[in-house]
Design brief:
The structure holds 3 protein chains of 3 kinds. By secondary structure, chain A is mainly alpha-helical. In chain A, 71% of the residues lie in helices and 2% in strands. The termini of chain A are far apart. Chain C is mainly α. In chain C, strands 1-2 form a two-stranded antiparallel ribbon. The longest helix of chain C has 30 residues. Chains in contact: A-B, A-C. The interface between A and C is large, with 48 and 45 residues.
Chain lengths: 304, 244, 325
């Protein structure tokens, strides 16, 4: 059971990173974005490309760092992937979603996001193929934390957990100590008043896409590092990330962070009672439970 | 430097949330520099809507709004500060989840002298300094109003728009906030306010406009309005000078 | 010649089956403004329900009751309606974006059940073998296919006429009123909720009927038939044809299915062998572009909704009204 718990915490940290941007986007634009989780896939694959390029240009950078399978090249590649994913999110909004919300209604954006998800996922499939990939072919031994009960943990998993928490802390500092962070919180609390206070909404929307894309890219890389790359990453994380935002309350960043861990841990523990084939349905059960008991989630505002 | 152009002038304004259903028709209004002008009128007259239309929160169909002679019709609300105008909404006029200090830091975020300005505002409103680390949601009604006005003053505006500043306040606090508004005019800031608390408002006003059913009714110096019996009739719904 | 007719009959049969589904979705979305992100779930419920009731007996399987066709068909439709009722009670009072996620989640959950509950659904390998209606009576395959097409068209026409009458009735007007005005809907209170539920259940029953027809045709059902791509295909058909418009729904079905099959055919014929495994991906990208492109260019669809108040019947007099959220 503790192994399930550990795995759940790890998955939860990845879901949390993915949910941060989604909760902000869903709150600001009133838009269930079915293409959002594809940013994780974009990030993971962009990092793959950058990694191979850097490693070719600078073979020295292709060294694994300590006991991890992570290389310096991959670290830099991840930063590049965060920029790419953030930029892609902004571009898709400007080219597609923004034009639709100006012309038609918010709900059409949801359909359009279905379409964008299909396009992104399958373009990735065409470019990279269907088979699963790994960043590094090194075999990394799992560490045995204890023999009875048997607890195994890969060094990469510890790194991912720490890195995810560091990213969350950085964001927390931005939100609690910088005026940009106050502006983000202001827009979430009261968009009209935020404008009156001098915040330009259209610029904030761009910033939210950039931040969300960057965090999602990191989440995608972290998943690929501890599992594998596959064009289905976006599809697999879509419902868990939605569930995290709903559990936490749409619009609440801290709610999304907490929600991600809750969804991850619940799915991990569910493995003890459900056959693994049913696990994709877990996030749905969580969503249903939240909507029945407390629809606004942990920290969200009551429904209008 | 004496300048006769009004700090704010509105002409022929037609505005409303939906294009084919205007709330305001053919509004004309002007605010002289360093003066306090009040808009009063029965419920549903469109007073709040007028202020919001000036601030850019309600779409304008036709007409012009000029700030110190410069046309600002249909601006985006976030452009107000740069033009020298501020708006204090009636409700939800501070960010509850941010502290006092954070609220001020937000409005001052593009200001080069953020710390100096914050000090100035604390000097003007000492109770805010004492509670600066408290979340704005935990303040009393009067303190929140104070913070809202402080936020409006942070951008060094020439004109402050206020929507029912005394609403929900105990009589003493209401008087204080209206006196505060009066005090602004002595520091070179003009004020346009909407009020339901007619007697209190007229006490501190220079000029007064009466609105009913979306259009101008009468206007004049506050003292004259206070003693004009027509005012009572407009309020009771009997008399209308302009029918929309 | 017979080959061409046979192929066209095959195409028209599937297109007509999908058109029934689009009509069901149109009732939910076009008329009542309900966002059903889990179309595949109700389609699948109809398909599996019919198969379980009417399929051949199998000692390892629950089901295979070999019931007469009309009962199996009705059973599938009823199952879809029941699932919709349960889902609707729990989710319909939610805001649109929540409803989209919740219904999408239902489809994912049901697909997981279909894939894993081997004793009930045959698991990943699905259920096969089904005695199709009239099969015993007609021995010639070619003639049978035409008769079956006739049967499907009859169902399509019946559903179409039924929905057209519903739309023009006072009941239909109330549904549209709820769609247009969220506030009015809330003012109606409990009534609006019940009306939404009725529209949702009826629409899902029609989706189930489409699934029942599908399994009748292919005599096979598997979890693949409940995959999200089906939901996207049906949505694309409705978006292209015109939401809020039954004729648009049918038109969209034939157009999109035509595009899907011809793109599949062209890719199979002309694409190099190394790319063949990716034809699915290419088709998905194409349908993604169709959805996005249509929403950017003409969100109201090819045949916009016509409110019958408009005097005159020419298409030029049509008043465009995109569903509001």
């Amino acid at each position: 059971m503790i192994q399930n718990l550990l795995d759940g915490i790890l998955t939860g940290s990845i879901i949390s990173l993915g949910a941060i941007g989604l909760t902000m986007v869903m709150h600001m634009l009133r838009f269930a974005n079915f293409a959002y989780a594809e940013l994780l896939a974009i990030g993971a694959y962009a990092a793959l490309v950058f990694d191979r390029v850097f490693a070719a240009l600078l073979p020295m950078a292709d060294q694994a760092i300590g006991p991890l399978s992570l290389t310096w090249s991959l670290v830099v590649a991840t930063l590049g992937a965060m920029v790419i994913a953030g930029g892609t999110a902004v571009i898709i909004d400007l080219l597609v979603f923004k034009r639709i919300r100006d012309k038609a209604d918010a709900l059409s954006m949801v359909f359009a996001s279905f379409g964008m998800a299909l396009i992104i996922r399958n373009v990735i499939t065409l470019i990279f193929g269907l088979k699963a990939e790994l960043y590094s072919n090194d075999i990394v031994m799992a560490m045995v934390l204890s023999r009875d009960p048997l607890l195994l943990v890969k060094p990469d998993q510890i790194f991912v957990l720490v890195a995810a928490v560091v990213l969350m802390l950085i964001f927390h500092i931005v939100l609690s100590r910088t005026s940009f962070g106050y502006a983000l919180r202001a827009v979430a609390e009261n968009p009209n008043l935020a404008q009156v206070a001098g915040v330009q909404l259209s610029r904030m929307v761009i910033m939210v896409w950039l931040i969300g894309g960057a965090f999602s890219a990191a989440a995608g890389v972290f998943y690929a590092l501890t599992n594998h790359l596959s064009p289905l990453i976006g599809h697999n994380f879509l419902l868990p990330v939605f569930a995290a935002t709903i559990v936490g309350g749409i619009g609440s960043v801290y709610g999304a962070l907490l929600g991600g861990f809750i969804v991850g841990i619940a799915s991990g523990l569910a493995l003890m009672i459900l056959p693994s084939g049913y696990i994709p349905a877990m996030p749905f059960l969580i969503i249903l439970a939240v909507l029945l008991v407390r629809p606004q989630g942990l920290f969200g505002e009551a429904q209008t | 430097m004496s300048d006769d152009t009004p700090i704010l002038s509105v002409e022929g304004l037609e505005a409303g949330y939906q294009r084919d259903l205007p709330i305001l028709r053919n509004i004309a209004l002007s605010v002289a520099r360093n003066s306090l002008t009040t808009i009063i009128g029965p419920n549903g007259a469109g007073k709040s809507t007028l202020i919001k239309a000036i601030a850019g929160l309600v779409p304008v169909n036709t007409g012009t709004v000029r700030l110190a002679g410069v046309p600002i019709t249909g601006i985006r609300p976030d452009q107000m500060g740069g033009l020298g105008m501020s708006y204090v909404p009636q409700t939800d006029n501070i960010f509850r989840t941010l502290t006092i200090r954070q609220n001020l830091a937000l409005v001052l975020r593009h200001s080069p002298q953020r710390d100096a300005k914050t000090e100035e505002l604390f000097a003007l409103f000492p109770p805010l300094r004492d509670k600066q680390a408290d979340k704005a949601g935990s303040l009393s009604g009067g303190q929140r109003q104070m913070l809202a006005v402080a936020m409006a003053l942070a951008v060094d505006p020439q004109l402050v728009l206020m929507d029912e500043p005394s609403a929900g306040l105990a009589p003493k606090a209401a008087m204080e906030v209206l006196d505060l508004a009066r005090g602004l005019t002595e520091r070179g800031v003009s004020v346009l306010l909407v009020e339901q608390n007619v007697a209190q408002a007229l006490r501190v006003s220079d000029h007064c406009y009466i609105l009913a059913e979306g259009s101008n009714q009468i206007d004049g110096p506050a003292a004259d309005i206070m003693s004009d019996p027509v005012v009572g009739e407009i309020y009771l719904g009997g008399k209308r000078m302009n029918t929309a | 010649m017979i080959g061409v007719i046979s192929y066209l009959a095959f195409f028209a049969t599937v297109a007509a089956i999908l058109a029934v589904a689009v009509l069901g979705l149109n009732l939910q979305w076009g008329n009542t403004g309900l966002f059903n992100g889990g179309v595949a779930a109700f389609f699948g419920a109809g398909a599996y329900g019919t198969m379980i009731l009417g399929g051949p007996a199998d000692p390892l399987q629950f089901g295979g009751f070999e019931l007469p066709y009309p009962i199996a068909f009705a059973g599938g439709v009823l199952l879809a309606a029941l699932v919709a009722w349960a889902v609707g009670i729990l989710t319909l009072r939610l805001r649109h974006d929540y409803l989209a996620i919740a219904t999408f989640g239902v489809a994912v959950a049901l697909e997981a059940v279909a894939r894993n509950a081997e004793w009930l659904t045959g698991g990943a390998k699905g259920l096969r073998g089904f005695s199709r209606p009239f099969e015993g009576l007609i021995t010639d395959q070619f003639t049978y296919n035409l008769v079956f097409l006739g049967f499907v068209l009859a169902v399509l026409i019946a559903v179409y006429i039924g929905l057209e009458r519903l739309v023009r009735s006072p009941y239909g007007r109330v549904l549209r009123a709820i769609r247009e005005d969220e506030v009015a809907a809330r003012a109606l209170g409990k009534n609006a909720t019940r009306l939404r539920l009725e529209a949702f259940v009826l629409g899902s029953a029609i989706l189930g009927a489409s699934g029942a027809l599908y399994v009748s045709f292919y005599a096979f059902v598997s979890p693949q038939d409940m995959a999200p791509i089906l939901t996207f295909q049906i949505w694309a058909m409705l978006i292209v044809g015109g939401a809020g418009n039954n004729r648009g729904a049918v038109l969209g079905a034939f157009l999109i299915w035509g595009a899907w099959t011809s793109s599949g055919f062209l890719l199979a014929k002309f694409a190099p062998t190394s790319v063949q495994i990716y034809t699915g991906s290419i088709q998905y990208i194409l349908i993604g572009f169709v959805i996005v492109g249509m929403l950017l260019w003409r969100p109201q669809g090819l045949l916009p909704e016509r409110i019958e108040r408009t005097k005159g019947t020419g298409k030029g007099a049509a008043r465009v009204s995109a569903p509001q959220s």
